[in-house]
Every structure is written in structure tokens, then in C-alpha cells.
Structure to design on (272 residues):
């Protein structure tokens, strides 16, 4: 696919997606939102093929991850709202909802999602940081949740923030117009690792090696089960979890994994 707002480069089983509007610190336009969803959909559609994507790495060009919404898109939506129309669609609400749909798509993906966070992390970028399975922050990362200080609401980010941090920390950030450096983000669980800039690539490589050592089917099934576990009592999942385990143990991945363990070799899904 040819993209304008992002770059997507596949290396082995890893799709590296770069938000590529450094002149605006990768502000998230509607075009970028659409391209992110297209790239993710294409990666997911490759599952099961010999050259399938197994991991998506999100990063920003120019030393920044994302500076929030692209203001020209919001201004255009505001103008359409002022002009009105015969349809009942609220253009501002629709623009806002598209950011949430994009974050939700990454949150529910069967693929492993890794976010590499540098410089400014705001708006939709903050949302992506919240939904990533693994979030790695460089020492330059600066997280902002400024919406309430600007007279608006972090409406689409809030649900992902609560899920990531819990109600108390999420509320604290919202009512204070939250500012966090990388160390503070690590302390409250927004990111999973904080490293010096010159160690960032080493950290990324180590995480990718760990992910690629896991069976892709088992990884996807585990993500689905964990998503359900957020909303249900453990006792309610006993039978379903047992059935999931049984299917995994009897499938080709399960047999290969156990065989590799017994034979003291790496399973066939681990890159050579």
C-alpha cells in the first residue's frame, strides 16, 4: 500500500508503522487515522500466510510520537457544524469518534502491538500508548492530557486511560491537565519500560525477540481471553478458558510447542 501520512515497512514478521508528519510533530489527521487502520487491517489479513505479520511496531518520525489532533481537521469540522445541513450527523462528533475507532482497532487486534514513545505523546498518540500491548518510552518522552485545560473533554482517550491506569490515576490526570515524563509514566503503569535514547533500539529488539518466541495463534487467543477477563469474574470463565486451552493443546501449534520443549529445540515459529 502507498501511504502519505504514515510509512509502513515489513521486516520479517514485524510491520513497522511510522507516523510520518514530523513538520507538525505527527499530529493525527483524519488521513493518518484512516491509513493506520488500513495498515493494521492489511497486517491482520496476512495472518495464516507464510509471510504473516505477527507484530506491529508504532513509532513517530522526527523524534516525536504524536502531538494530538490535527487542528485543521477540527477547524473544518467546526465550520461544517456551524453551517449545518439536512443530515443529522454531527461533524465534530464524527471526527472525534474516528480517533476512538482507530484506538479500539489496535486494542482488539490479534497481533502484538508495540508502541515506541519519544518526544511529545498527546491526543490520539496518548490513546495508542494506552492500548499497546507493550509500551516503551525513551527518556525524551513527554505525555500530556491537556484537554480540560483547553476547555474540552478527552472523550475518546478517557476509556482507554481508565483501562490502562485505573480510575484514580486516570481521574488525577484529567483534573490536573496531566503532564508526565517517562519516569512518571513508568511509575503509574502507562508504559512498561523506560530507557535511555541510546538504548532504545536494543530494548525494541529484545521485546520483539520475546514476542516472536511466542506462538502467534496462542498469543491471539490469550489476548481475547484476557480481554474477556477484564469484564467477567474468574469463575465465569472457567469452562471457556478450559476449552480454549484444550483447543490450543491439540492444535498444530500446541503439539509443535510441546514437541520442541521435549526435544530441547526451538519451535518452528521462532525466527532463525
Amino acid at each position: 500500500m502507498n501511504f502519505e501520512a504514515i510509512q509502513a515497512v515489513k521486516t520479517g514478521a514485524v510491520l513497522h508503522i511510522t507516523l510520518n508528519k514530523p513538520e507538525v510533530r505527527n499530529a493525527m489527521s483524519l488521513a493518518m487515522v484512516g491509513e493506520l487502520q488500513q495498515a493494521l487491517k492489511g497486517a491482520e489479513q496476512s495472518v495464516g500466510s507464510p509471510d504473516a505479520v505477527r507484530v506491529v511496531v508504532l513509532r513517530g518520525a522526527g523524534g516525536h510520537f504524536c502531538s494530538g489532533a490535527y487542528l485543521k481537521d477540527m477547524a473544518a469540522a467546526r465550520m461544517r457544524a456551524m453551517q449545518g445541513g439536512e443530515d443529522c450527523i454531527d461533524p465534530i462528533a464524527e471526527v472525534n469518534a474516528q480517533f476512538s475507532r482507530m484506538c479500539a482497532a489496535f486494542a482488539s487486534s490479534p497481533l502484538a502491538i508495540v508502541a515506541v514513545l519519544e518526544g511529545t505523546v498527546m491526543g490520539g498518540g496518548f490513546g495508542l500508548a494506552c492500548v499497546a500491548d507493550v509500551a516503551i518510552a525513551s527518556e525524551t518522552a513527554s505525555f500530556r492530557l491537556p484537554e480540560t485545560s483547553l476547555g474540552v473533554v478527552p472523550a475518546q482517550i478517557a476509556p482507554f486511560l481508565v483501562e490502562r491506569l485505573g480510575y484514580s490515576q486516570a481521574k488525577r490526570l484529567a483534573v490536573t491537565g496531566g503532564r508526565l515524563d517517562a519516569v512518571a509514566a513508568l511509575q503509574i503503569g502507562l508504559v512498561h519500560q523506560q530507557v535511555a535514547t541510546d538504548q532504545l533500539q536494543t530494548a525494541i529488539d529484545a521485546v520483539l525477540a520475546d514476542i516472536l518466541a511466542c506462538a502467534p495463534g496462542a498469543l491471539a487467543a490469550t489476548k481475547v481471553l484476557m480481554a474477556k477477563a477484564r469484564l467477567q469474574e474468574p469463575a465465569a470463565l472457567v469452562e471457556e478458558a478450559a476449552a480454549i486451552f484444550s483447543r490450543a493443546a491439540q492444535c498444530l501449534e500446541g503439539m509443535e510447542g510441546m514437541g520442541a520443549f521435549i526435544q530441547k529445540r526451538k519451535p518452528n515459529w521462532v525466527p532463525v
Residues 6-210 form a domain with the 2-enoyl-CoA Hydratase; Chain A, domain 1 fold (CATH 3.90.226.10).
